[in-house]
Amino acid sequence: MIRTGLGFTAVAALAAAFTFLSGELLKQIPETPTIHEVLDEEIQFDAAAMTLNSRIMDRHGVLVSDVYSGENRIFTPLHEMPEVAANMFLAVEDRNFYEHRGFDGNGIARALMVNLQAQEIDQGGSTITQQVARNLYLTHEQTYERKLSEILYAYQMEREMSKEDILELYMNSIYFANGVYGFESASQFYFSRPSSELSLAEITFLGAIPNSPSRFDPLVNSEATMERQEVMLERMVSAGILSESQLSEALDEQIVLDLSERTDDFPDYVSYVHHEFEELLIDQENLDREAASERAQELLQQGVIIETALDPTIQNAVTEVINDRFSTSDIQAAASVIDHETNEITAITGGTAYQKFDFHRGWQASRSPGSTIKPLLSFGPYMDETGENKAGSYIDSGPFSKNDYRPRNFGGAEYGVVTLEQAFKQSHNTAAVRMLDKISPETGFSYLRKFDFPTLKEEDIRLPAALGGFSEGMSVNDMTRAYTVFQQKGEYRTPRAIRQVTTLNGDVIVEGESASIRVYSEETADTIRGMMKRTVESGTGTAAHYDTAGYLGGKTGTSDEYHDLWFIGSNDWYTTGIWIGRDQPQSLESQSRDQVHTRLWRNIMQELPTAP
Asked: What are the residue boundaries of the Glycosyl transferase family domain, all occurrences included (predicted)?
């Protein structure tokens, strides 16, 4: 008893001294402008200190992916949270919140006495302002230096912010266990409802957790959480916030948790959206790739809303068709689907049984495009440059040789003079090379550079490119995007998955809309569109044909040694491209003979709606 008495005396003396010194400090600081100047210079409150959740939405405004940056936090304005929740934390954590200027010497002394009597840490000595400073701008290490910094930060915070702003930061920064930060996030996580719909019992149950998140974690020790909840309610009664009857009613209510799962659907599309976000930052903020990646992460941590063109029905259909066909095989496939009317990517796949952020074959796999490059590099530029832009115009498709380069047609067949349509729908290699030679590879590539082909290199400017001979190749998404030029009368506007990215307040950061550029004449685009139609009717793409009342056309492609199989085509509403191959290239000759690529494209197109 003597030792306990001495302990109380010592604590009381220390608390009194601390209170006196604190009071004197507050008296002195306002009279010393230089101290304020130092604080203004040394203490900066970074608006991005609190990481927030970002959201990716589909074309209907439905959430498809929660993006957490290490902390699950849904920032919510103070006025949108229950007033009783804020009053609860004020009653328990900081009764003098509206009177003090950042720290409370009397409160620290009182907390010391209560904790000593309880033989445990039942009350903290820090004000709500100090807790915000510690949670957002400092560390949690137990040192006198950190405690002094906390007091200085809290004092400066009270100078720069309103009490309501500080309380709002507190309500959004406190930790509720299980990676959940902020009261609204806790409500959504533990009860799957917004905090505005919670009962008093549920509010105080959540309020019990932050005092010791590991000890009062309701998923591990719900009994301890409920015991702490009772303490919270009693404090609110003693503070005059609740009546005894409200306390009894809250304690009688059974707490039923309804845990929410993180929304993270459509991994193929969402992974691509992350990539395209960086691409838009490169274009619209003039950043290099490394800076764009850092900027994207910074924005995602600050909290953004990414509105996309994702059509869940189409995405599911394309994914299912590909998985059903190749899930038991080592063959991979990827596809991209673009809506003509909106010029947007409505679906994109990353490969068979794709997992989020794995290697994405839709945009990362650069492969030889084979003959699918011919309309873009040979036919289109040749028709525009020479004026021979009719399907019935003639081209020599006979044997070709230049500087030891001698391309061969499929099966070694030889032809003579044929129409452009015949050379197109039967995919004559010699005709395609001759066209590029007539206008020059440099001229042909001047057209190709108007598209989004990031892997083009100077060494690619040569005749073999007419047949897909590139140093790296193209992705199926980039090829599909380029093919939309024929459905847009020769003009090209980069199709995007992202419509716009905004802050949580609705301010636009980047937009997906891009300027239109003329690539081919309208006459040339219309002729190629017609030749694609004949290819499906009576050329190399007949296996892609299906009954439809509108337009249907496309182009096949096969790389050397059958390593890659392609088909890119359109109906009245969509342009869809597919690629089939193995990650480690091997021959797909038997699959080519069986027209696996054209049949797969047909199966996908038949699953798409008849109109967007």
From this structure: 64-236
Residue position matching structure tokens 């919140």: 97
Q: For residue 386, what are the contacts with CB-CB under 8 A and spacing of at least 6?
A: 438, 439
Mean pLDDT of 176-194: 97
Q: First vs last Cα of the chain: how many Å apart?
A: 82
C-alpha to C-alpha distance for 90 and 372, rounded to whole angstroms: 67
Nearest Cα residue to 594 out of 553, 562, 554, 555: 562
Bridge-partner residues for 65, per DSSP?
A: 56, 264
Sequence letter at residue 414: E
Could you give the residue numbers annotated as active site? 93, 371
What letter would DSSP give residue 110?
Answer: H
Give the 3-state secondary structure of residue 493: coil
User: What integer pLDDT is reported at residue 551 of this predicted model?
Assistant: 97
Quote the mean pLDDT of the chain: 91
> Is 508 a residue whose pLDDT tops 80?
yes
Q: 10 Å Cβ neighbour count for 275?
A: 17
Q: So what's the architecture of 43-69+266-358+475-480+493-522+543-612 in CATH? A: 3-Layer(aba) Sandwich (3.40)
Residues 283-323 have pLDDT tens digits of 999 999 999 999 999 999 999 999 999 999 999 999 999 99
Please report which helix (H) or strand (E) contains residue 210, including its range.
Answer: none
Q: What is the pLDDT of residue 15?
A: 43
CATH assignment of 368-471, among 3.40.710.10, 3.40.50.2300, 3.40.50.720, 3.30.110.40: 3.40.710.10
> Residue 175 contacts by C-beta under 8 Å, 6 or more apart in sequence?
135, 181, 210, 213
pTM of the model: 0.87
**Angle, CA 338 vertex, CA 333 and CA 343 arms, to 5°:** 155
Over residues 327-341, mean pLDDT? 96
Instruction: Give the fold, CATH level 3, of 2-19+70-252.
Output: Penicillin binding protein transpeptidase fold (1.10.3810)
